[in-house]
Amino acid sequence: MTTLLDIKGLHVAIEGQAILKGLDLTIGAGEVHAIMGPNGSGKSTLAHVLAGRPEYEITAGSIEYRGQDLVELEPEERSREGLFLAFQYPVAIPGVANLYFLREALNAHREHRGEPALDAPAFMKRVRQEMTKVGMRQDLLKRDLNEGFSGGEKKRNEIFQMLMLEPVLAVLDETDSGLDIDALQTVAKGVNAMRTEQRSFVVVTHYQRLLDHIVPDHVHVLADGRIIHSGDQSLAHKLEAEGYGWLEEVA
Amino acid sequence: MSDAAQAVEELSKEYRWGFVTDIEADSAPPGLNEDIIRFISAKKEEPEWLLQWRLKAYRAWCKMAEPEWAKLGYDAIDFQKIIYYSAPKQKKKLSSLDEVDPTLLEAYEKLGIPLDEQKRLAGVAVDAVFDSVSVTTTYKETLAEAGVIFCSFSEAVKDHPELVKKYLGTVVPQRDNFFAALNCAVFTDGSFVYIPEGVRCPMELSTYFRINAANTGQFERTLIIAEKGSHVSYLEGCTAPQRDENQLHAAVVELVALDDAEIKYSTVQNWYPGDDEGRGGIYNFVTKRGACLGDRSKISWTQVETGSAVTWKYPSCLLLGDDSVGEFYSVAVTAKRQQADTGTKMIHRGRNSRSTIISKGISAARSHNSYRGLVDIGPKAEGARNFSQCDSMLIGNQCGAHTFPYIESRCPSAVVEHEATTSRIAEDQLFYLRQRGLSEEDAINIIVSGFCKEVFKELPMEFAVEATKLLSLSLEGAVG
Predict the structure, then answer these.
(1) Which residues of B fall within a CB distance of 8 Å from A54?
(2) Interface mutation target, options B3, B427, B432, chain A, most CBs of A under 10 Å
């Protein structure tokens, strides 16, 4: 099996405060990894570091992605190389139409791959194809990006963008938070439809319920900046039932 | 330091209109006195009444002081060092465009304003003003068929003296302010528009101003008269060469709208802004005012201000007619060390007069951007309404945004609303867009044009595209 992402001894600090303290994680092509763990353990930091958020400083360790040094790449280069982050709190950008933004983004990806830009009809055809998969309402496409979207609408929009951009590695940062069960199932359906032997997912979540719908190959527990325990889907159930307390004894 | 702020540090946009056209000019010596004014008037073969009008303004100006209330800091202007008249040398009077010096045509071609017959902007009539004189006006004949007069100010003085005499100085009086008085004394050329009763002007009218000669001031004067029930949309654009010294631009624009008439006046101002250290650039001190004389008349100002080292400009509306409407839509972008103090005045006198003010200020690098606006409602302006919205956006942390709204209402039935916001271009917005594959520069452009959308949609279609491009050019290099 090919390795897609290889994180070794990763230390990350924000404004001088250490958050990740020696994290190791290897993700193979086509795998789904769930990252669980208590609040403040560094789950979201990991997601943002992978996407290249500028405020996060890598103080030690390495991240290799598709054979490249990921740390050397700008956020937009990571994106064009197929790394997608579904944000926990997607920001609103007033005055910028959702569809306009998406077309610019998609064409930036196509240009990077040496493909011609999609014209309006071809783009709209793709849009119609993908939006039904996540139950995106038509009017949200014309609205300003995330402006006045409900929590659920924002999350659907993230997954819709993921479907449109067809990433190689998708990182879902607590996409399930704030979703009702119907929305959760729709989101999971969108993700499952995208699972292939090449495409991998990192699913950051607090709750096991998402993992009933998106079945992970591996489940990791992140605590105090390191992965302290790994297992399969049954680990998620155990965590749901027993919490994280027992792990401190194991560790 | 944040990425965006660091990027702004490295702001080093090249001004693409900075070239100088090497052309022989016929100029007055530097300095200002009554002889210079007589010289200008004689050069333009003006009637005696206009010369006397200029001299009266000059004498008033001599007793006036330069205004100091604006939030602007600049070295004192030495009015005796400025050249007040400079014209490209022409051997004889021109009867067609073929006789215009090709160097001049090339200059406009470089600016993207084709004047020659084959390449004219479709559907837009252009008056091109180079330094102190109008070079040519396109589509004159087509307009004449509709009864529309669109010509240089000098031509209007010769061909339509009765109209000029009737309206000149009626909206902006000679003594209105220091720079307006100066303009009255030394104005050189500009555009004149007359739309007869009931006529809808068949095309967009546009004037393109270019300062070329060194040490020369540009003092153009524009007068637009819209008779009852007429309609016109007018656009001006401006650029200047890149020079180390500051150049003065002090224009006056007067608009008159009679009953049911509508004037839409758009500006894309891109004078040379100076370099990163604040050397050079245009001092832009402009008085623009429209009088809604007639009932149900409407004047709408839209401006996109990206250039000039210093901008002092308040396009205003005198809402005298009942049910008259005034609008002001503004985008002002400052980068480098630019300073802008701009806004509007809405003077409500007519009953049920209405006004809308939408102002978007964007400051980057070490620039300062102020909105200054007055809403003044007289005791008889029953039912008058105003809505003002002033939004500021900051890029980086060394720039400033300021809002100075003044509201004076002496009419109990009037309704005035004011909203203001200030935001910093957020790191998380930038990161979000970059995470989707957009470069930092594209991300900034997208956020900024979204911020300005309400104003851009007021621009004539042809120019909305230009304005968007200009905006991204002004902020180009705002990222590293």
Answers:
(1) 2-3, 427, 431
(2) B432
pLDDT recorded at residue B5: 42
Residue B6 touches partner A, C-beta closer than 8 Å: no
Q: What residues contact residue A89 under an 8 Å CB cut-off, 6+ apart?
A: none
Query: pLDDT tens digits, residue range B1-51?
Result: 344 444 333 333 466 666 666 666 677 888 899 999 999 999 889 999 999
Distance CA B169, CA A196 (A): 75
Give strand ranges (E) for chain A. Answer: 3-14, 17-28, 32-36, 56-65, 68-69, 83-86, 169-173, 200-204, 218-223, 226-231
In our burial notation (b when 16+ CB lie closer than 10 A, e otherwise), range A191-211 reads beebeeeebbbbbbbbebebb
Pairing of strands A68-69, A56-65: antiparallel
* Residues of A with Cβ-Cβ distance to B452 under 8 angstroms: 95
> Max CA-CA distance within chain B?
68
pLDDT of residue B1: 37
CB B129 within 8 A of CB B191: yes
Q: In this structure, are strands A68-69 and B310-313 parallel, antiparallel, or unpaired? A: unpaired
Q: What is the pTM of this model?
A: 0.80
Phi, psi of A93 (to 5 degrees): -125, 100
Q: Do A76 and B434 touch (CB under 8 A)?
A: yes
| Cα gap B476→B480, rounded to integer Å | 9
Interchain CB distance below 8 Å, A108 and B454? no
Please report the residues numbered 421 through 450 in chain B whose beta carbons come closer than 8 angstroms to any beta carbon of chain A.
426-429, 431-440, 442, 446-447, 449-450
* Residue A97 pLDDT grade (very low, low, confident, very high; cuts 50, 70, 90): very high
Say which residue the tokens 């637009």 belong to.
B224
The alpha-carbon radius of gyration of chain B (Å, integer) is 22
Is there a contact between B443 and B433 (Cβ–Cβ < 8 Å)?
yes
**The one-letter amino acid at B366:** R
Give me the DSSP letters along B294-341.
STT-EEEEEEEE---SEEEE--EEEE-STT-EEEEEEEEEE-TT-EEE
A8-57: pLDDT as tens digits? 999 999 999 999 999 999 999 999 999 999 888 999 999 999 999 998 99
CA dist., res. A57 & res. A70, Å (int):
14
CA A104 to chain centroid: 20
pLDDT one-digit tens code per residue, B285-308? 999 999 999 999 999 999 988 888
